[in-house]
Amino acid sequence: MSAQRIYVAGHRGMVGSAIVRQLQATLITRTHAELDLTNQAAVNEFFQQEKPTQVYMAAAKVGGIHANNTYRADLIYQNLMVQANVIEAAFQHGVQKLLFLGSSCIYPRLAPQPMREDALLTGPLEPTNLS
């Protein structure tokens, strides 16, 4: 079997950077300035050239409570484009493993701590994360 080639989308964020530290020797990374994940053609070209075998999807446009309230449509649009482009390119280019991480913002506001995955959709969301 050939060597694994791993791409971590969102490698400079909290979760992505933790993944990077664990996988340092085999990583393919690009900053947002180097690869705009909302650009489908650029994402496809990247996957064609780099041929990652694993993708860890931790990329997102984020901004906190004020941005969530002010830029609701833009944030969801940007994040949907990133997700759709990376997932589709991973499928089209035969990626062996795709890990897609969800944000804690998708869990109920009053979820028991520490949060567990099965808390998803068990109560009302934090109001700034509703749209």
* Uncertain runs: none
Helix and strand run: EHEHEHHE
Strand content: 5-15%
Tally the structural domains.
2
The amount of helix comes to: 25-40%
CATH class identity of the largest domain = Alpha Beta
Order of strands side by side in the largest beta sheet? 2-1-3-4
- How many angstroms does the end-to-end distance come to? 44 Å
Helical stretch count?
Answer: 4
What is the 3D form? Answer: globular
Quantity of strands, as a count: 4
Biggest β-sheet description: 4 strands, parallel
User: What is the second-level CATH architecture of the largest domain?
Assistant: 3-Layer(aba) Sandwich
CATH superfamily of the largest domain: NAD(P)-binding Rossmann-like Domain
Overall mean pLDDT stands at 86
Query: Structural class, please?
Result: alpha/beta
CATH topology of the largest domain: Rossmann fold
Q: Taking Cα atoms only, what radius of gyration do you get, to the nearest Å?
A: 16 Å
